[in-house]
Amino acid sequence: MENRPIVGITMGDPAGTGPEISIKALADPAQYEFCRPIIIGDADIMEQAKGFVGHPEIRIHRCETVADALFQPGTVDVLHLPLIADVNAFELAKVSAEGGNAAFQCVKKVIELAMAGEVDATCTNALNKEAMNLALAQDKGARSDGYTHFDGHTEIYATYTGTKKYTMMLAHHDFRVVHVSTHVSLREACERVKKARVLEVIEIANQACKDMGIENPRIAVAGLNPHCGENGLFGREEIEEITPAIEAAKAEGITGVTGPCPPDSVFSQALGGWYDIVVCMYHDQGHIPLKTVGFVYDREKKDWKAVEGVNVTLGLPIVRASVDHGTDFYHAGKGNGNEKSLINAMKYATRMAIGRKKGAAR
């Protein structure tokens, strides 16, 4: 058991389903077979979540430090942060500064633990960006670091780890995509397709695959324009920026990189096993195919049959994987939130933590 990575899991916004799916995931002893999980959050919120999901038998073990954790099936260890003043009065499925602050403080804490080496990997439940930034704006006078806004988890991690070069990877089992740009307008995304950034993402993708135990990664680089620009007929980004980046990566010894590949076919090829990872030029180019595969809606039941996928921040000095969905206010308090994405994220975090340790030992 001691050889299994310790994974710190944030509870997410307490107004959403993060606490509930955490209990559902950890109620299954199978999760303890590959890692040692500990929730970073408010133990009172986690006690409440037990009732929502019908697991009264689960024991919530309040911890002051990671060293206090038991890591035993049937017990959910919680590094307790007293974040919600009155759990019974706290409103679910509602944007609030209190909920946003709780989610933010959990993320800060788990980053601190990982940077200090107290956990081997971090895993995040969803936070609500509006709620978080509402809390940050209200609390700016009381905080010493001066930050009053974050776009999301990725930016928080980059800031508090001092990371300048990073990117987002989405994964559904062995189908993986990484991004040259994410949360910007499509117009700005096109302008950000530059040789230096494309090369940087290829390098990060290559290292991420090696961290997962893939010895010789096969990396496809998607084009930006239809048909990769048809030799300049529909745009010159492939000629002037993307191809030079690919050639530079090959010169560095990243021999498994291929492209530019037409975006309308490269994802089908990746699903067919041609590639280990696809470098995408902008947010939706990668998100749409990944979520088309991972998010499955049941027409007859009119509900989601599966909400799977993992969001991993690459380029950080610590491991961070996350659910690939939002706070899911709709299901909050109903006990029917889907825990599959969280379990997948825990497995990805564990795999990358093990891979990094093996790489460091070589």
TrEMBL record:
<comment type="subunit">
    <text>Homodimer.</text>
</comment>
<keyword id="KW-0520">NAD</keyword>
<protein>
    <submittedName>
        <fullName>4-hydroxythreonine-4-phosphate dehydrogenase</fullName>
    </submittedName>
</protein>
<comment type="similarity">
    <text>Belongs to the PdxA family. PdxA2 subfamily.</text>
</comment>
<dbReference type="GO" id="GO:0016491">
    <property type="term" value="F:oxidoreductase activity"/>
</dbReference>
<dbReference type="GO" id="GO:0046872">
    <property type="term" value="F:metal ion binding"/>
</dbReference>
<dbReference type="Pfam" id="PF04166">
    <property type="entry name" value="PdxA"/>
</dbReference>
<keyword id="KW-0479">Metal-binding</keyword>
<dbReference type="InterPro" id="IPR005255">
    <property type="entry name" value="PdxA_fam"/>
</dbReference>
<keyword id="KW-0560">Oxidoreductase</keyword>
<dbReference type="GO" id="GO:0051287">
    <property type="term" value="F:NAD binding"/>
</dbReference>
